[in-house]
């Protein structure tokens, strides 16, 4: 090919990239504008400031919540019990505020597992200021102080992400902070105020995905393609979640926290909250599969730029099918690992298998898993098809010998 032919080919490729960019913008810009406008219209009024729950971590008037480091533990008589019973674990702790070592009574559940040991930092209710109480303990265990290990774990996570992914990893962490801000200041207050839960979840999730994907991965045709697939999967998930919430009668009444919410937030729709949760819970995995699938198409094209669109789609879908299979296990095991107490309880009920799976304790999480899985599975072929169309229009073709074999044949 002569220089004139190469220049013409470059001109055609630039024109194709412009057309693809215009097409992607024509799809995404209106969606983004509508999402932002709806977010402004649905923005909470701030009335949730008048709604509050009694904190389980608050002390009664005259009492205080102190922290201290355990110096030693001993099995001793429980306050108010018969002499010589020695049924209670007492943790002698040095208050962080200073003063003498105090005997903190440990509840039987904590004493059994995980137990309290020398060197642990604990939080306890100080009742000594209420006056002498011979029938009860003056210091009662409340919780462990776990701030330091949690901060250390978060720091290790951030360091590992940044060390491996570098600047992109840092941007992903900052995008995660932005996503939580949308949750904290838009979605959660909106639910409490009685805003439409389906619309609230769709708008909030769309804004999160626009911000997270473009901030973490940069503005490019590859990212835009993944975003289109993500928004498609989000729409499918929302539609299925709206149907499944009502069809399976998800009331949320198996959770005692629901009763507290109903008593203080009369405008909050419990079924709407569950539906919103079904949509939001699948965002992370949905984002994962679409950006991975989009990147796979681009990488395959870089390796074999002469491959046809059909062969490129078939090769990318082979990767997508493997991703689908592994993701199904990921979602299922993630729930199973976090719900072991509920699973054990249901097992001890000795119910038939189907009755156990459809019980109030398990139904919500099973529906959540199925709804999220359907959305992400449908998003993969859509993302792949869009990515193939865009990459064939925007990618730079490498010069290859005329007799070079066409790779990636199915």
From TrEMBL:
Pfam families: YibE_F
Signal peptide: none
Keyword vocabulary terms for this entry: Membrane, Transmembrane, Transmembrane helix
Transmembrane segments annotated in the record for this chain: 21-43, 144-165, 172-192, 198-216, 223-244, 264-286, 327-349, 369-391
Entry protein name: Membrane protein
């Amino acid at each position: 090919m002569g220089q004139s032919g190469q220049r013409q080919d470059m001109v055609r490729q630039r024109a194709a990239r412009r057309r693809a960019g215009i097409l992607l913008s024509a799809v995404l810009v209106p969606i983004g504008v509508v999402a932002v406008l709806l977010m402004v219209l649905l923005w909470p009024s701030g009335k949730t400031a008048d709604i509050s729950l009694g904190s389980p971590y608050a002390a009664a008037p005259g009492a205080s919540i102190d922290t201290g480091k355990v110096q030693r533990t001993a099995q001793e008589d429980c306050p108010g019990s018969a002499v010589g019973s020695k049924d209670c674990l007492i943790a002698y702790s040095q208050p962080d505020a200073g003063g003498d070592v105090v005997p903190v009574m440990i509840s039987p559940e904590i004493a059994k597992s995980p137990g309290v040991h020398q060197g642990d930092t604990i939080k306890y209710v100080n009742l000594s200021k209420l006056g002498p109480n011979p029938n009860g303990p003056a210091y009662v265990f409340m919780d462990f102080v776990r701030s330091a290990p949690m901060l250390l774990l978060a720091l290790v996570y951030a360091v590992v992400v940044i060390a491996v992914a570098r600047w992109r990893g840092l941007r992903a962490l900052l995008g995660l902070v932005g996503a939580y801000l949308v949750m904290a200041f838009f979605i959660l207050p909106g639910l409490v105020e009685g805003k439409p839960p389906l619309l609230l979840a769709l708008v909030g999730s769309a804004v999160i995905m626009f911000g997270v994907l473009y901030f973490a991965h940069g503005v490019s045709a590859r990212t835009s393609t993944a975003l289109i697939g993500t928004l498609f999967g989000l729409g499918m998930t929302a539609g299925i979640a709206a149907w499944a919430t009502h069809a399976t009668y998800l009331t949320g009444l198996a959770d005692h926290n629901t009763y507290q919410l109903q008593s203080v937030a009369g405008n909050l729709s419990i079924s709407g909250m569950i539906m919103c949760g079904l949509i939001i819970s699948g965002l992370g995995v949905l984002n994962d599969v679409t950006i991975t699938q989009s990147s796979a198409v681009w990488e395959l094209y870089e390796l074999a730029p002469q491959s046809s669109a059909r062969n490129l789609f078939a090769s990318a879908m082979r990767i997508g099918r493997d991703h689908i299979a592994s993701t199904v296990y990921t979602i299922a095991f993630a729930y199973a690992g976090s719900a072991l107490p509920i699973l054990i309880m249901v097992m001890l009920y000795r119910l038939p298998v189907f009755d156990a799976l459809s019980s109030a304790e398990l139904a919500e999480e099973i529906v959540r898993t199925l709804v999220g899985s359907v959305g992400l599975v449908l998003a993969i072929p859509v993302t792949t098809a869009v990515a193939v169309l865009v990459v064939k229009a925007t990618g730079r073709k490498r010069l290859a010998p005329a007799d070079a074999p066409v790779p990636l044949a199915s």
